[in-house]
């Protein structure tokens, strides 16, 4: 279950990182850095937090998946299209990555006996950590600090995983339901322009 969600997130965030790099007109090296940070950065930070060697550093599959998706994006000249950030496939892929990594972060935290705060924080770090580092490197205010409901979805997913675990009903079917709910919530929040205003 971990690996399935992990690779869904990697594929989705590769697309997200590539679109961000294209929007900022980065060269090939810049694209590689942006893509790898977005796709793998959150997982690396998650694994470091639990005191483990990052999965990406001991297995070739994550980097290989990133390379394959990146090559396909270049072949289909996605970078030459007009802004794709508002395109449905970008919103959905980014939402899938956000929720997939939120779930894996929360589940790994539970596996390591983290408390409530630890579970939701690791869920958050796994989901948005790579994107934050990427945005800082390309000199942008991190996306999650400008779109209030983006990071909130990650926290909600982490809380739901924690609750189901403590009710002893964290079954594959329920994880799938959380996944669908999280993606739907993020997509609806985007199109409805939901935000958390500071008043």
| Radius of gyration over C-alpha positions, nearest whole angstrom | 16 Å
Strand content: under 5%
Low-confidence stretches: none
Largest sheet features: none
**What would you call the shape?**
globular
Query: How many domain modules?
Result: 1
Continuous helix count: 8
What integer is the average pLDDT?
89
What's the β-strand tally?
A: 0
Order of helices and strands: HHHHHHHH
Distance between the termini: 41 Å
Characterize the structure shown:
By secondary structure, the protein is mainly α. It has one domain (2-191). Helices cover 74% and strands 0% of the residues. The chain has helices spanning 2-23, 28-49, 55-58, 61-75, 88-111, 116-137, 148-166, 172-191. 41% of the residues are buried.
């Amino acid at each position: 279950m971990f690996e399935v969600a992990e690779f869904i997130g990697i594929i989705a965030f590769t697309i997200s990182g590539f679109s961000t790099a294209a929007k900022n007109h980065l060269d090939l090296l810049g694209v590689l850095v942006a893509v790898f940070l977005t796709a793998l950065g959150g997982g690396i930070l998650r694994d470091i937090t639990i005191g483990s060697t990052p999965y990406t550093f001991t297995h070739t599959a994550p980097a290989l998946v990133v390379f394959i998706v990146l090559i396909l994006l270049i072949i289909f000249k996605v970078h030459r299209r007009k802004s794709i950030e508002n395109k449905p496939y970008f919103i959905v892929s980014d939402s899938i990555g956000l929720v997939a990594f939120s779930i894996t972060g929360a589940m790994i935290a539970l596996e390591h006996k983290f408390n409530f705060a630890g579970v939701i924080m690791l869920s958050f770090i796994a989901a948005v950590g790579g994107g934050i580092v990427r945005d800082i490197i390309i000199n942008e205010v991190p996306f999650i600090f400008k779109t209030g409901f983006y990071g909130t979805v990650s926290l909600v997913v982490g809380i739901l995983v924690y609750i189901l675990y403590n009710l002893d009903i964290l079954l594959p079917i329920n994880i799938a339901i959380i996944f669908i709910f999280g993606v739907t919530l993020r997509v609806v929040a985007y199109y409805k322009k939901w935000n958390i205003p500071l008043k």
